[in-house]
Amino acid sequence: MQTAHEMFIHELTDMLDAEQNLVEALGKQAEESSRPELQKAFQSHQAQTEKQVERLQECFELLGESPEDAECKGIRGLIAEHDTFVGEEDPAGDLLDIFNTVAAAKVESYEIQAYQSLIRMADLMKHTKVSRLLNQSLKEEQATLKKVEGFSKKLKPENLGMEEEAEDESDSRKAPRGNGSKPRRGRAA
Predict the structure, then answer these.
(1) Vertex 162 angle, CA 160 and 166, to 5°
(2) 159: Cβ–Cβ under 8 A, 6 or more apart, which residues?
(3) Could you tell me the domains of the chain?
């Protein structure tokens, strides 16, 4: 890779792979959701992501280029993190909802940075129409991040896992001390 144009095409391809993989991942997250409003939000974002894929394909057409063979390792890593958590931890439904909103926020932050970088490059190379398309996706990602953060603030785990700890503390307060007398304070006799 020797030119900014080559790098731009590489990064566009990376983003296309990311968005294509997210279409499937968002479908999984919608299916996993225990709350109808969260399920609807993931489905809505899946439809939005499909439009972003179309926009990226339009960018390639405008540039007279074809996507390269590439993998977005960043997004694939975040998807693998999700799959590992679900497969190995077998989380309760409410905890999976919380995990999925946090995972969505990570993905949105990643995408926002990627789109901002692509827009800077498109602007430098005077690809005005491409920049407009990328800006549209960027604004959608920023709005989605705000929605995800809103969901994240509302979701609370049903079981905090603190019952045992509270019971232990309560038992230690009730337990008799030594000979039953209170420890002396002040000067020794």
Answers:
(1) 150
(2) 92, 94
(3) 4-158 (1.20.1260.10)
- Whether the CB-CB separation of 82 and 75 falls below 8 Å is answered with no
Model confidence pTM above 0.90: no
Q: Exposed (0-12), middle (13-18) or buried (19+): which is 5, by Cβ within 10 Å? A: middle
- Residue closest to 49 by CA, chosen among 74, 70, 20, 11: 20
CB atoms near residue 94 (< 10 Å): 15
Q: Residue 188 pLDDT > 90, yes or no?
A: no
Rounded to whole angstroms, the Cα distance separating 16 from 5 reads: 16
- What sign has the CA pseudo-torsion 109, 11, 115, 57? negative
d(CA 137, CA 113): 12
Render pLDDT for 88-136 as a digit per residue (tens, 0 to 9): 877 777 888 888 888 999 999 999 999 999 999 999 999 999 999 999 9
Closest listed residue to residue 56, CA positions, set 166, 151, 136, 167: 136
